[in-house]
Specification:
The chain is an alpha+beta fold. The protein has a single domain, classed as 2-Layer Sandwich (Peptide Methionine Sulfoxide Reductase, Chain A). The protein has six helices and eight strands; from the N terminus they run E-H-E-H-E-H-E-E-E-H-E-H-E-H. It has a six-stranded mixed sheet. Strands 4-5 form a two-stranded antiparallel ribbon. Helix 3 runs parallel beside helix 4. The radius of gyration is 16 Å and the shape is globular.
Length: 222
């Protein structure tokens, strides 16, 4: 999507003091229901539901990847990991908010594990490209995992460590994926309504998502 806004080509992370000021509320209304799953976008969700946040480049294709997985309760796209409160898409594309294009994945851990979600994450994009993903270039397209439980953090690091040797053998560089807790990364701001489940509403819409072709093994002992 970077062709829409030339300023999105910036690949230097903005300093907090230079980030856009933002606002104290959403400047747009949000849909309440997932167009594919029919579940609430913002909750409440069934007891036991856990949430994982992942960024894989353009969030349109990334969201579709996860809503197809059995055990996923809902998905939503948004902005996270930056400094500007309640940013808009246009602001995020300037690289002056610090956010990445993020996907919220709410899931039932009794049906699908964090590890299996993360193996899908690794295999569905190229996590070695830094501030880009394919032809989409800019800090908003960086690869990231923001966790909400200790088990997710362990799964993120163990699957990464299991994946890196296979990537190396296939000629890829070091994984650049940012891994940290969602509390440290900051608030997940829901994107505008037209971005939510975009590829369901626009089946022939742009999707720049592409993996490396390298499978992610289960970590030793898993």
């Amino acid at each position: 999507m970077n062709w829409l806004f030339g300023s999105a080509l910036k690949t230097t992370m903005v300093a907090p003091e230079k980030a856009l000021a933002g606002r104290d509320r959403y400047p747009y209304s949000l849909p309440t229901t997932h167009t594919v799953l029919g579940t609430p976008l913002q909750g409440p969700w069934p007891d036991g539901t856990e949430v994982l946040y992942v960024a894989m480049g353009c969030f349109w294709g990334a969201e579709r990847t996860f809503w197809t997985i059995p055990g996923v309760v809902t998905t939503a796209v948004g902005y996270q990991g930056g400094f500007t409160p309640f940013p808009t898409y246009e602001e995020t594309c300037t690289a002056l908010t610090g956010h990445t294009e993020m996907v919220l994945v709410a899931y039932d851990p009794s049906v699908v594990s964090a590890e299996d979600l993360l193996r899908t994450f690794w295999e569905s994009h190229n996590p070695t490209q830094g501030y880009r993903q394919g032809n989409d270039v800019g800090t908003q397209y960086r690869s990231a995992i923001y966790t909400t439980t200790p088990e997710q953090e362990l799964a993120a690091r163990t699957t990464r460590d299991a994946y890196q040797p296979r990537l190396t053998r296939s000629g890829f560089g070091e994984i650049t994926t940012e891994i940290r807790s969602a509390d440290d990364a900051g608030t997940f701001y829901y994107a505008e309504g037209y971005h939510q489940q975009y590829l369901d509403k626009n089946p022939n819409g742009y999707c720049g998502l592409g993996g490396t072709g390298v499978s992610c093994p289960r970590p030793t002992g898993a």
